[in-house]
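pinned: reference chain
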Amino acid sequence: MDFNENKPIYLQITDGIMDEILGGVYPPEGRLLSVREYAAKVEVNANTVMRSYDWLQQQGIIFNKRGIGFFVMPDAGKKIIEMRKTVFFQEEATYFFGRLSSFGMTPEDVAALYSDFLSATGRTYK
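pinned: its structure tokens
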């Protein structure tokens, strides 16, 4: 896994795990790789992965069955989307909408671009 220097590695790992949960790699109540297995997969120290798992557990995204491993919470996908939506609107939206405004884009222009994006990527509005 390639890491950037602008964000702690354990948080980058949590982002990757959340992406995998949303992508169905780890379904609700599915078992995650062990800490050591995941550390080998992303080529980091097991303590770093344990820190990631602890963070995800604190957020209510995964849970631990002592002696068995870590599992995905049944409502993890919903929690991840809500968490990411909150972060986007608290941290990124002001910059994003400011840039759109500086380009002279109207809400209609943005809606059309978003619609085109959805069509081009095969995604749907939920």
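why pinned: Residues 9-75 form a domain with the Arc Repressor Mutant, subunit A fold (CATH 1.10.10.10). The chain has two domains: 9-75, 77-121.
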